[in-house]
Give the backbone structure.
Amino acid sequence: MTDERDMYQTSHLRIVPRRHWGRWIAAGVVCLLLAALVRAFINGKIEWNYVGQFLFSQSILEGLVNTILMTFAAMAVGITLGVIFAIMRISENPVLSTIATGYVWIFRGAPALLQLLLWFNLALVFPKIGIPGLFEWRTVDVMTPFVAAMLALGIQQGAYTSEVVRGGLLSVDAGQYEAARSIGMGQLLMLRRIILPQAMRVILPPIGNELIGMVKTTSLASVIQYSEILHNAQIIYYANTRVLELLLVASFWYLSAVTVLSIGQMYVERYFARGIQRLKAAG
Amino acid sequence: MSEILVKAIDVTKRFTGFTALDRASLDIRKGEVCCIIGPSGSGKSTFLRCINMLERIDGGAIWIGGELLGYRRDGDRLYEMRDSEIARQRRRTGMVFQRFNLFPHLTALQNVTEGPIHVLGEERKAAADHARELLARVGLADKMNHYPSELSGGQQQRVAIARAMGMRPELILFDEPTSALDPELVSEVLDVMKDLAESGMTMVVVTHEMGFARGVADTVAFMEAGRIEEVGPAKKVLSEPDNARCAAFIRAVHK
């Protein structure tokens, strides 16, 4: 009887934590590999003083500004088209929804680089653009590298974004549409005040992702002479042959831009999660 | 007797494969509380949704305050209304849903002011004052700035009632307002509805709460298989119905 009571008495015993040997070994191996990589870069023939010299050079900083400009211009075009085509896609009008489907099919199907070249070379097939009788321009004057890149990247982005927006609209409960109608809302007011704000919670994380992707996709515009970071870095290394140094400079700025945007994304998502976030905190 | 507010004649609604409403006719007078009872799948909710034009009807017609729903009459022709006209007609009717359907991205107060400000074009200040008054009336004076996810089911449904009242409707439709609630939360919602009934609001309530029907309703309609089988004063229908199936249904719920 006494023995049994002793057996179930644990409060005086000391707990020895389990040792995670596997974790220690894995961490050690990875750190060693990392050290080898760092050593390779230190011993490699990289002239670090060139990196420092060109990091803040005027040409590179101008390229950075142009990259940021193009990122937001193309995303603005993409999001605008994305919302319009998503609403067309779910509309009851069969013509509109078919056209929206076709838009996604074509512009998601062709490579971004190809679309860039297509827009930039539009003058070859359409020497003049405009509305006949009203106004007309020479295509070569209108289709600058900036305009061509904005259209090409924006329109292909719109194809992706419209799918994201459509997914967001579908994620809103049918009861929300009914509740909005029951207080006498029309179609547009309902979309703007009730449906889109809720769809935003689902739409924003992928859009943030795509915005970050766009920062890097703009580097493709270097092939049509748009002076963004990579293009300007290339011009410098064609002259001084410090290829890797200047590519490191360009990587630094891409990484910086992406980091800033990632932090911004976090705050925007937090805003649109209002009313939902609280549920998580409580639960 | 007061004038007729809702007149439904031979309302028919077909879904692919079955007839949800089969020539349902009902009159609701101003200030009347009408409970619609019946087994599930009998078309009660569908009938309510037709009155609010959330469903398009395939036959018959509904008038609210003498105005034909969904169509404009010109001579011997009926022209289908545009979305904006339908939205305008809906403003006369409030609706309370089984699953509350509050706007989750808006606070309780904003849920109530949303319609008055953006649909009716009321002043922000006036709409907020009215909304605060309504939320106080449903016992939620201390929850105005809470989001729906922070409220219990009973509290959410009371906000939904305040939201419907915020539009100053002539009629409020309740679609099984207590069916999604935990049992202990049912009475707080029924109390608010009772208070609303006593203030003279015209109400059509689809419900399984026989106690509420007996205590508050003026008339009760019994539906089965898409038809209104019996309608009359609440006491009469609930205690000594003429229809045999109605009597069987009432016996079954009381078991």
Remarks:
- DSSP finds 13 helices and two strands in chain A.
- Residues 279-283 of chain A have pLDDT under 50 and may be disordered.
